[in-house]
Amino acid sequence: MKPRFLIPVGVFAALVVVLAVGINHSHDVGVLQSPLVGHQIPDWELPVLTDPAKTLGSRDLKGQWYVLNYWGAWCYSCRVEHPLLLQAQREGRVQIIGVDWVADNPDENAAALDMLSRQGNPYSHVVTDRDGRTAIDLGIAQAPESLLVNPQGVIVYKEPGIITAEVWQREFLSRLPPQSKATAPTTGGS
Amino acid sequence: MKTLTAGALVLMVVWLLAPAREAWAVDPARLSDPAQQARYEVLIHELRCVQCENNSLADSDADIATDVRRQIRTMLVAGQSDDQIKAYLVSRYSEFILFRPEYSWRNAWLWALPGVLLIIGVISAVRIIRQRAMLVDGDDADVPQI
Question: Most buried residue, A55, A119, A136, A185, by most Cβ within 10 Å?
Fold first, then answer.
């Protein structure tokens, strides 16, 4: 009879433990875990920025490692990320495909080309996503976001934000095969 | 003071009756089929904007929300069911985008918990009330003896 007053205390303590574990194990605020990671990338095919009559798609890239980087000239964070991408391109471990996300901005393509000519072009190819249809299909929520895709076409990693030098090292380079093998299929640019 | 209250009332009435209220919404898109439009509006209120996560698609003017709304309209017009549209978006963005969680065994505790807590509360309340009622009876019996 006596220790009954301990019941609410116990319930409260249990609740604190459950919530503390939940908060500690939840991923960062604003980070959505993509259900596509670990699975085949949904087929995509998009017009090339400089020549919309041509397209590039997942089928053309089978057998190669690539990073698919969603960005836009309207996107401030993408400008922050840009120098890292340029450096990554100079390293040449993996080709980076840029997807210019139009997102209803008039003159987005011209602005994108302007940004690339001014600040450098880290991409082996740049394609355009006009209506965001492919972005949705690939589970993209915002820009910048990047997918690392292996030669079998499986998404092995998704970075839901700016790639920093640390993220590039820890999440991208570490997943690539040793350098000599990685450079072989990465013929890039056309 | 009275005129102020009256003025506020008039303003509220005007606001409620204003036919152009929809024009203030984030999304001005209209589907030609009213039934589809109705389903569209329910859907965009039940789905989360994946960028600004505490807004619904209906409330958000983020670029991705605009694109997702366009995609939903395309799928609706193409004759897809609400469940198909939701299943597609869940396959891309996980169940997180549903403001109303699915009825599944994984979510059973989520749906069951309020009911379980209510039952526990009712049982506790009944027991406490009965105990107190017995105490009151005892008090009455005690009074004449003093």
Answer: A136
